[in-house]
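Researcher: Please predict.
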Amino acid sequence: MGMTNASMYRFEGLFPEQFLYQNPKQTVSGPGVVFIPQDFGRFLPTHIKKKQPPPPVTTREQLMLISAFFGFSKSKLGEIFGVSRQSIYNWFDNSEVAVEHYEKIKRLADIAFEVDPQPSQQIFHVYANTMMDGYDKSLFDYLRDNDFDRDKVVKLSKTVYEISRERWKRIDAMPKAHE
């Protein structure tokens, strides 16, 4: 019966946003607790839905997203862009970026944002450097090319990111040594 009341509120849009998103993985209903399925947001009016973060705008924001998503060191980023590690540090400090490098930064940031706008885990470096089934190069090798096939890189990035997330979950679930 509690769900009947919840359904009524759901369609009227009366749940406060904080309540809807405070515990989206809750799976048990009990006294005073209402079960809210993870896909509940699709029933909400547009003004209540959880908003996606805005895409990165500055070169620094884009580089931070690339770094957070792909998990590459500044040296590896330098290899991808064909510049020194010091240039990457300078770009992070808002130095001028050549047009051809800026275009590639934008393309990589767009890919990372498309796969996961707020990456919770980095791509595991082993997977980024491993050639996956169905591909002729590793993700890292694709990214080193200036004219890479965007659709292929997006698809490979999604695959590698999901594999990496599963590995991070297994690592997090491992028993921790007592301190």
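Model: DSSP finds nine helices and no strands in the chain.
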